[in-house]
Amino acid sequence: MGTIKEKLDYLNETKNLMKEALIEKGQEVKEEDTFRSYVDKIKNIKGGIIRNPDGDHIYGVKHLLYSKKSYESTWIRTDDSIGLFVEPPLTTHADNPFNHYYPWRDIISYNFDAENGIVTAEYGDENYKEDGTNGQVMTYFPKFWWKRWQDEEYEYIQIATYPAEGFNYSPPFSLGRYLSSFNESLGKIESKSGALLFLKNPTIIRDYAKSLGKGWGLMDISRLALIQMLFLVRYANNISPEILGKGRLYSYSTKTGDCDSLGMQSGTTANSSSHSVIDMGLEDIYTLGGSSYSFQFIDGVNVKDYQAYVCYDRDKYKCDMFEEPYKAISYLNKKTSSTGNNMGYDEENPLIMLPTDKDSVYYKNNYCYTNSGDVTVCLNNKYRENEEANGLWAYAIGSKSSVNLMCRLMYMEE
Questions:
Q1: pLDDT tens across 375-414, in order?
Q2: Res 289: pLDDT
Q3: Are 295 and 283 in contact (CB under 8 A)?
Q4: Structural domain tally of the chain?
């Protein structure tokens, strides 16, 4: 290997081998990519769960604005979603075409050793455990690109498998498969099956989550919005109880794990208040109202007298803060509690979907409890114990930060 030609041939062979290895690890490698760019691609291989997008696709939905006298819960499919039929899973657990398309295809629950930052098993592996004995039970969401926008008639929501022009990047993230519990003997917050819910004020539960290590926190308004958009594009309907089921009514003795038998399927084992719903690997993606256990705290957003302030820096989340890095969005929240609300749109903060009186898309049957003062944002509420008023857009925006709330863990690699 002494000649220049031999050295160049050896270098090209090495590059081709590295290219094949990167592709096997889920990294996209184009012919025009430089050899130096492989360094960044190698850095992207983290955590043991990497998938490869199956081509360039955009999936979307659109809905007429409220001002156009449109009150339907169904959305119109657009882009590569046109022609796809989705049967509501409910108790039949019908297969969903999106289960076979990225990014939904690659959403998966897994076990994670938080102390060492190691994925110990994925759903389907023999050593995968739901009871916490093999680590935190989390659900992984791969990277994707999103866009939410409005014109004079419609709101559009789109999910792309590639960095399409004008789209926003969502890096990979993980959420607790289960609502959080607390291990008294270990003194730590957990996501696992067969456990009682952990209810404390947001500052305490956030500190417990962050004590798990770098990258840990609580489900925030940004990730909730991404879940909501994935749901809308997936089902083209904003009344989630009609799609998945009523949701479970929790009490002090209710334990997590009701959907373990469903694995990565969606729906519920029985459409009643004693059974949880699951979708995209998130058990109790929403719960049924009627109990003080129904408030699920959402981090990264604070509200003062109906004005929401949003923060996108996970390291700086703090309750009752209304100054930098928190910034006011362009619309006020609803000032009266009601069933059926417009979900606001702010061009500068397109992720955020909170109930408002301003013209936007009308979300039928999604109840919002609201109050004045310095309050938190929670998903679900205890004020409506019926199927029609609850779901993935049912908010409680009225609890003080001193109130004990439930939560869901979140992990994002730095």
A1: 999 998 877 776 567 899 999 999 999 999 999 999 998 6
A2: 84
A3: no
A4: 2
Can you tell me the distance from the alpha carbon of 146 to that of 60, in angstroms, rounded to the nearest whole number? Answer: 10
Q: Give every CB contact of residue 268 below 8 A, 6+ residues apart in sequence.
A: 90, 91, 244, 245, 246, 259, 275, 276, 277, 278
Q: Are 53 and 28 in contact (CB under 8 A)?
A: yes
Grouping H, G, I as helix, E, B as strand and the rest as coil, residue 160 is strand
Task: Tell whether 320 is covered by a domain.
Answer: yes
Provide the domain limits for residue 402: 58-411
The whole-angstrom separation of Cα 33 and Cα 268 is 46
Amino acid sitting at position 278: I
141 and 263 housed in the same domain: yes
- DSSP percent split of the chain into helix, strand, coil, nearest 5: 20, 30, 50
* Co-location of 73 and 159 in the same domain: yes
- Match 């998938």 to its residue by tokens: 51
Q: Within a domain: residue 50? A: no
Tell me which residue has tokens 């334990």. 255
